Each structure stands twice: as C-alpha cells, then as structure tokens.
Amino acid sequence: MLKQYLKGPDDFADALKSLVDYLEQERGFSHDEIIRLVSKEKKPKAVEIPACIFNKKLSSLESVVKYLKENLNLKYSEIAKLLNRNDRTIWTTYSNSRKKFSKKFVVMDNKYFIPALIISNRSLSVLGSIVSYFKDNFNLKYSQIALLLCRDQRTIWTVYNRRKKKNNPIFGGKNE
Fold first, then answer.
1. Worst-scoring range by mean pLDDT, 27-36, 69-78, 143-152?
2. Which domain holds residue 128?
3. Do 52 and 30 share a structural domain?
4. Whole-number Å distance between alpha carbons of 176 and 127
5. 110 occurs within a structural domain
6. Is the Cβ–Cβ distance between 16 and 110 less than 8 Å?
7. In terms of domains, do 24 and 96 share one?
8. Residues 38 and 85 in one domain
9. If residue 113 lies in a helix (H) or strand (E), which one and from where to where?
10. CB-based burial, 25-59: b 16+ in 10 Å, e otherwise
11. What is the predicted pLDDT for the residue at 176?
12. Is residue 107 domain-shared with residue 154, that is, in the same domain?
C-alpha cells in the first residue's frame, strides 16, 4: 500500500519524519517512547523452556528438543540454530525421545523457565547448563533442583561442582 507513495529513500525518510512529528505533537508521545515502541516490535520473543517438562525417562536434551518440536512447533533447523547443535543431532535426539516417551508434554502452572540461550552454550552439558542456571540465578538447593529436573540430588551436586571446576566466567567463575 505504501509502496505506491514511497518512490525512493527520501520519500521514506520524509514519511517517517512526518509520522514521528505527528505522534509527538498530536498524540503526545515522547521521542523515547516512540523509539521504545518501535524497538519492542522488532525484538523476537525469547524462547523459554518450562522446568516441568523434565522427567526420568528422557535426557535433558531429549526433553528440551521434544518440547520445542511438539509444543512450540519449531522445525529441526530452528531448534538446531537455537540450541547451537547440528540438524542431524536434533533429528536423532527427537527420534529417540519419541521412542522413550510418546506423549506430548502437558505444561501446567510452572514457576521456573529456562532460556534456550542457556542451553546453547556448548562449553557445558545441557544438564550442567540448566543446573548452573537454577543454582546461580534462583539460589536453589541441590535437592530443589533435583526435584525440578527429576534427577538424584547427588547427580545435581556432581554436575554443578564440575562446572565450578571449569571456572567458566559465563556462570560466575573466575579466570585465573
């Protein structure tokens, strides 16, 4: 619709300036509010994984991939990019998860969500990344994390302490 009126970059700049002037003068928006509104629309929604999807039958990666594929309807390539993994790894992981756990995850009221960005860090295991996220950001006890992830608390302790030994600065460790 606008293309017929906007023949070149100058026309676009003039139209944008007119719109900004209108919003400021006629509608009372501040310049910062306009920028905030425009930038809010451009930001893609961060993908978060609910903690309630983890169970004893599936590995952490299998649970995450199954959730992203079935509940969020993402393509294998989208999941691979999001988790910083190979497409074939994602396909195999999803295939294995369906053999072990055929039902779709039911996400109920959930207090804890894990940003997918946390899992994309390849310097730690998927479980290690998740445990570190809960421990460092929510200060949960090992037993609480174990209940959330359906794992033994000794496993959680081991995973977290291995992470600490790596001294990974991303999760608050120190480079010495």
1. 27-36
2. 48-171
3. no
4. 25
5. yes
6. no
7. no
8. no
9. strand 113-115
10. eeeebeeeeeeeeeeeeeeeeebebbbbbbeeebb
11. 45
12. yes
